[in-house]
Specification:
This protein is of the alpha/beta class. It folds into 2 domains: about 5-75, no CATH class; about 80-315, 3-Layer(aba) Sandwich (L-fuculose-1-phosphate Aldolase). Helices cover about 40% and strands about 15% of the residues. It contains 13 helices and 11 strands. The strands form 2 sheets. An 8-stranded mixed sheet has the order 7-6-5-4-8-11-10-9, sandwiched between helices. Strands 1-2-3 form a 3-stranded parallel sheet, with no helix packed on it. Helix 1 links the parallel strand 1 and strand 2. Helix 1 (about 15-20) runs parallel beside helix 2.
Length: about 350
């Protein structure tokens, strides 16, 4: 076991964790009670790097004092504190709390699920904390991180899934807000590896458009965050396989609107399939009208992308003839030789029942 000595550090940061990983360390030695930033702790856990605590170095009496020292270090940056408590930030915090309650009321999140963020400046992002229900959020609960995930303001630890939001902000300059949640109908598509079709409802075409689905990775990890990178420049809404959805927009409220639009759309499609009639699709020429509206609004769409973009990357329908694609990993079962014809059996049973009811 190779260990890196970090006992001289007052706070273990993401840079320390990355240095330990680059050095091939399988453990780090830190002072007793030495605070670790949430991003550093996530990184160490993900890379199976153990954290061993030693007696405090001289001048560091206990863990509580270390935490207070860390907080005072945060407060020692007047520019960060001024931004975090500015009128703009306070308005954003109130909006995030209102959206959190809205997500919970609509049953798009449960327990402490989901997370919300807003990029308030070039390198600072206000976000929700971990382990707090979105129904119970208050402005005092919120945190602020930099684009590397290091918490720089706020008393509660930031959400472990902030990396997902940060990857979007770094890849898409237009993105100012992101909402991750688990709306049941859209998530139903995500856990079956399917995407809803297009050219059915005008509002969906304008505000959402083609939907992508990102592959599964463990939530909260850097790998999970990077799964959306192939999609977020051409999509503002991405299904997360076996997990939920992520939406980005210019405001927190608009990002939440997109979550409502996609979930209601998936729900409507599910209801429509129960009516036993084929879907009615918007014609291609009318689709062009809707795309023109969307382009004027400055919203992204994969259909604006270069023609050489791989269709398999988009995970979308080639033709609007079915509700969704069957994922490649789940092929349709092939009947074994000699297996009974199920439809013939059903027909024969139905005929027998009808004959009995008719007195035959």
């Amino acid at each position: 076991m190779k260990s890196m000595d970090l006992t001289a550090r007052k706070v273990i940061t993401m840079r320390d964790a990355q240095d330990a990983h680059a050095d091939g360390a399988t453990a780090v030695e830190i002072g007793s009670g030495c605070p670790i930033t949430p991003s550093a702790r996530d990184f160490l856990q993900h890379h199976a790097i153990a954290v061993n605590q030693r007696s405090c170095p001289a001048g560091r009496k206990n863990g509580r004092q270390n935490v207070e020292a860390s907080r005072s270090t945060q407060r020692a940056n007047p520019a960060i504190e001024k931004l975090f408590h500015s009128p703009e930030a306070e308005a954003i915090k109130k909006e995030i709390c209102a959206i959190g309650k809205k997500l919970w009321t609509r049953m798009y999140v449960d327990g402490n699920g989901g997370n919300i963020s807003y990029r308030i400046s070039q390198n600072e992002v206000i976000c929700t904390p971990t382990l707090v229900s979105k129904a119970d959020l208050t402005p005092e609960d919120l945190c602020m991180v930099d684009l590397e995930g290091n918490q720089i303001a706020g008393t509660k630890p930031r959400t472990s899934e902030i990396y997902l939001h940060l990857e979007i902000y770094k890849a898409v300059p237009e993105a100012k807000a992101a909402v991750h949640c688990h709306p049941p109908h859209a998530t139903a598509y995500a856990i079956t590896g399917r995407v809803p079709p297009n050219r059915v409802i005008p509002e969906v075409e304008v505000f959402i458009g083609k939907v992508a689905i990102a592959p599964y990775e463990t939530p909260g990890t850097p790998e999970f965050a990077q799964t959306v990178l192939p999609f977020v420049k051409q999509h503002n809404t991405v299904l997360l396989a076996n997990h939920g959805i992520i939406c980005w927009a210019d405001t927190v409220t608009h990002a939440e609107w997109y979550a409502e639009v996609i979930d209601t759309y998936c729900w409507t499609l599910m209801l429509a399939t129960q009516l036993g009639a084929p879907l009615s699709y918007i014609s291609e020429d009318k689709e062009g009208d809707l795309l023109s509206i969307k382009k004027r609004m400055g919203l992204p769409d994969a259909r604006f992308a270069p023609a050489n973009m791989k269709e398999c990357q988009l995970r979308d329908l080639e033709m609007p003839s079915a509700i969704a694609l069957v994922p490649n990993s789940c092929p349709q079962p092939v009947p074994e030789p000699g297996a009974p014809d199920v439809e013939a059996l059903v027909k024969s049973v139905t005929d027998a029942v009808m004959a009995a009811l008719n007195g035959g």
